[in-house]
Amino acid sequence: MTVDSGMASVRGTPRMLLRLEGLLLAGLCIWLFARLDEPWWLFGVLLLAPDLSMLGYLGGAALGAASYNLFHTLSMPILAILAALAGGSNLALAIGLIWCAHIGVDRALGYGLKYPSRFADTHLGPIGRARKAE
C-alpha cells in the first residue's frame, strides 16, 4: 500500500543528478574539514547528530517531518558556516561542514526531505520497505 504524499517523487536522471550532487557535497565538505585543524573524532561524533531530529516522529508524522526537514536542509548549516567565517571560529566552521557532509551523504543514499504522511515518503521517492513495495 502506498501513501499518496500529494507530490510526485523525483525519478530518472533528475534523481540521479540530485544524488550525485549529494555525493559531491559530502566529498567537498570532508575535504574542507580535513584542511581544518580539528580532530577527526569530532567528525565521527557529530556526523549523525542531525538524525536526532527524527525524535520528532515521537510526536507524529507531521511534527517528525518538520523536525527532520529543519535539520536536513542546507539553510541552517550554511548560515552556521557563514557565521563561523565572519567570526573566525574553526570549531563552528567544522560543525557546519560536518552538518553539510551529513546532508550530502543522506542525499547520495537517496534519503530526501520528508513529507508529513509518513517517514518513508521523501522528495527523492519512498525509502525502505515502502520503496520495495513500489
Helix fraction?
55-70%
Mean pLDDT: 89
The poorly predicted ranges are 1-5
Helix/strand structural class? mainly alpha
Profile the largest sheet. Answer: none
Radius of gyration: 16 Å
Instruction: Give the percentage of residues in beta strands.
Output: under 5%
Number of strands: 0
Which outline best applies? Answer: globular
Q: What is the H/E string?
A: HHHHHH
Description:
The chain is mainly alpha-helical. The protein has one domain. 58% of the residues lie in helices and 0% in strands. The chain contains six helices and no strands. It starts with 11 loop residues before the first helix and ends with a helix. Mean pLDDT is 89; it is low at 1-5.
Secondary structure elements and pairings:
Layout: H1 12-34, H2 40-46, H3 61-71, H4 75-87, H5 90-108, H6 129-133
Task: Briefly characterize the structure.
The protein has 134 residues and is mainly alpha-helical. Helices cover 58% and strands 0% of the residues.
Please describe the structure with a list of short key phrases separated by commas or semicolons.
single chain, 134 residues, mainly alpha, 58% helix, 0% strand, disordered N terminus
